[in-house]
Amino acid sequence: MATAIDAAQVTYEAPDLALMEKFLTAFGMTRVEGSDDRTLYMRGTGTQHHIHVTRKAPKQRFVGASIEVAGHDDLAELAALPGSSPVRASTEPGGGHEVVMTMPDGIEIRAVCGRAKAEPLPERAPFAMNNIRDKNRLHTSVRQSVAPCTVARLGHFVLHVKDHDASMAWLNKRFNFLPSDHFVPPGEDGPIVGTFIRLDLGEQLVDHHFMLLLESDWVGVHHSAFEVTDMDAVMSSHDYLVQEGFSLDVGVGRHLLGSQIFDYWKDPFGFRIEHYTDGDVVDASHRPTRFNGTASETTQWGNRPPLEFFR
């Protein structure tokens, strides 16, 4: 199976690229050279060439996600599986090669390799935090204005599927994923209806999850999530987006599974998008647990989502 090494991008369709660009710029992303009146490419401050793509179309739609793999041998292995495209040159800015696949519910998954790395963009250093025991910030103060934060990277995305087990089998046949935690129905021991998925890079630390798969009566994206510098970035950006009149969804709070400090918004076309920071990192030795609570119980503190948040 292919070695996945990063979440590369999420891809959407929408009727107004200028409106999407205005929101994503306020959210903390930067337009990439190669964008035009048909496709908008946005990047973070990290080395992925772009992390958010919007194609112009009459109606809004989530297309799918792209996963970076370790090498061209991984692409060749994926291309040999039923339903996969051949290995082909990417037509997106940054070049490289790709294999296009379709999950059982029609969600597009692209494996990408070899596209150009971006030069990192400048961003402020994280603020050191003083707690009751460790005084890490000495002779200096925190000064953070209300302003757009800088998004660093695409951290994860969450997909709703009709059949959790079938979709997990499809993914596990293709990629070296590991489960981090499982959802089961509230108050029950099973069956598993959701899985937090992480990369398997051995002893290298990775995010608690780069994907969450949830069984649902509808198919599509629940949200895509982008990592920012620290909690002050989350909070100051929250105030800025409120000030600019954008649509708050749920936030700010701290998750239970993964521990991230989160802030969810709606883009102009109704897609949920998240700022987060301070998530758990684990290696291949981590063993999954089962969670059987409600959506509101996935929040430790802060703004709690409604019961139907994950439906």
Keywords:
20 strands; 311 residues; mainly beta; globular; eight-stranded mixed sheet
Give the beta-strand count.
20
Mean pLDDT value:
97
First-last Cα distance? 31 Å
Main beta sheet, described?
10 strands, mixed
Q: Order of strands across the widest beta sheet?
A: 19-10-11-13-9-14-17-16-15-20
Q: Tell me the helix content.
A: 10-25%
Instruction: Briefly note the structural class of the backbone.
Output: mainly beta
Rg from alpha-carbon coordinates: 19 Å
Globally, the shape reads: globular
Q: Can you tell me the residue ranges where pLDDT is under 50 for at least 5 consecutive residues?
A: none
Q: What is the H/E string?
A: EHEEEEHEEEEHEEEEEHEEEEEE
Strand content: 35-45%
The number of helical segments is 4
Secondary-structure topology with pairs:
Elements: E1 4-14, H1 17-27, E2 30-31, E3 39-43, E4 52-56, E5 61-69, H2 72-79, E6 88-89, E7 97-102, E8 108-113, E9 151-161, H3 164-174, E10 177-183, E11 194-199, E12 206-207, E13 211-215, E14 220-228, H4 231-243, E15 247-255, E16 261-266, E17 272-277, E18 281-282, E19 289-291, E20 299-302
Parallel strand pairs: 1-4, 5-8, 9-13, 10-19, 14-17
Antiparallel strand pairs: 1-5, 2-3, 3-4, 6-7, 7-8, 9-14, 10-11, 11-13, 12-18, 15-16, 15-20, 16-17
Organism: Streptomyces tendae
InterPro entries: Glyas_Bleomycin-R_OHBP_Dase, Glyas_Fos-R_dOase_dom, VOC_core
Protein name: VOC family protein
